[in-house]
Design a protein that fits this description.
The protein has 48 residues and is mainly alpha-helical. 96% of the residues lie in helices and 0% in strands. The protein is rod-shaped.
Length: 48
Amino acid sequence: MISKVLYLRNQHAISLLSYQYLVLTFIFQLSNIKKQKLNNIKSDEHKR
């Protein structure tokens, strides 16, 4: 019985961790896209 509770608690912690990881990767990807757009704008200005 105790091991079952511990198992469920571990599963919950793991799902929380993976959720945080997904959110972090998503934010990271977004910031990368923003940087790329800024770089594209800068390079366009240099080309002129």
